[in-house]
TrEMBL record:
One annotated GO biological process: dUDP biosynthetic process
Domain Thymidylate kinase-like: 10-199
GO CC term, one of those recorded: cytosol
Taxonomy of the source species: Bacteria, Pseudomonadati, Pseudomonadota, Betaproteobacteria, Burkholderiales
Family from the record: Belongs to the thymidylate kinase family.
Enzyme class: transferase
UniProt organism field: Paucibacter sediminis
GO molecular function, one term: ATP binding
Protein's name according to its UniProt entry: Thymidylate kinase
A Pfam family annotated for this UniProt entry: Thymidylate_kin
Reaction catalysed by this enzyme: dTMP + ATP = dTDP + ADP
Record keywords, A-Z: ATP-binding, Kinase, Nucleotide biosynthesis, Nucleotide-binding, Transferase
CDD domains: TMPK
Length: 210
């Protein structure tokens, strides 16, 4: 029997096409009767959105970056995610903690044990359990392809300006997180057309009873 996921995170390097498919996923969940809350990280609350601007556009080292991201995540969990889940809503979040391990951990070279400690402190959910998504959909894409897509779509922020080696490390960071939590992760090959990627996404959701 499939477990219906109520907290879903969407992950992938910049340019992987997450935004395109989040809208379709929202429609699918709503059509199935779910009350869907769309949110994002960094962000999701007034405080976290202000921290997002600092993280994306101000120079800082990896530890400062991680501390700001986790501070925003704590506020996001307390003010938005936990209340929504308690009210029976389905939360669809554009990035969550896996992004921190991929970007600040693998990408910036932050000590993963430090990130794991912050994760434990910040994400204590009801009954002391670590709050993680029920399902994480990882849009996996070669960094060179993602760079081409980004260049055609928008002006780059300070993360998107990083070189291909940085994004190769980030991709490897996502792969490591997926390998450590295979029941939670669903990898999607994001290198295909929009329709091909959408078909993979439908298959993932059908397998989860959605």
């Amino acid at each position: 029997m499939s477990f219906y996921p109520r907290f879903i995170s969407i992950e992938g390097i910049d340019g992987a096409g997450k935004s395109t498919h989040i809208a379709a996923l929202t429609e699918r969940l709503a059509a199935g009767g779910a009350k869907v809350l769309n949110t994002r990280e960094p962000g999701g609350t007034e405080l976290a959105e202000r921290l997002r601007e600092l993280v994306l556009h101000s120079g800082m080292d990896g530890l400062t970056e991680a501390l700001l991201v986790f501070a925003g995540r704590r506020d996001h969990l307390q003010r938005v995610i936990e209340p929504a889940l308690a009210a029976g809503q389905t939360v669809l979040c554009d990035r969550f903690t896996d992004a921190t391990f991929a970007y600040q951990g693998a990408g910036r070279g932050m000590d993963l044990q430090v990130l794991a400690t912050l994760e434990q402190w910040v994400q204590q959910g009801p009954r002391g359990l670590l709050r993680q998504p029920d399902l994480t959909i990882w849009f996996d894409l070669p960094p060179a392809t993602a760079a081409q897509r980004r260049a055609a779509a928008r002006e780059a922020d300070r993360f998107e300006q990083q070189d291909l080696d940085f994004f190769e490390r980030v991709r490897a960071g996502y792969a490591a997180r997926a390998a450590a939590a295979p029941a939670r992760f669903a990898r999607i090959d994001a290198s295909g057309t929009v329709d091909e990627v959408a078909a993979q996404l439908r298959a993932v959701m059908e397998a989860r009873g959605c």
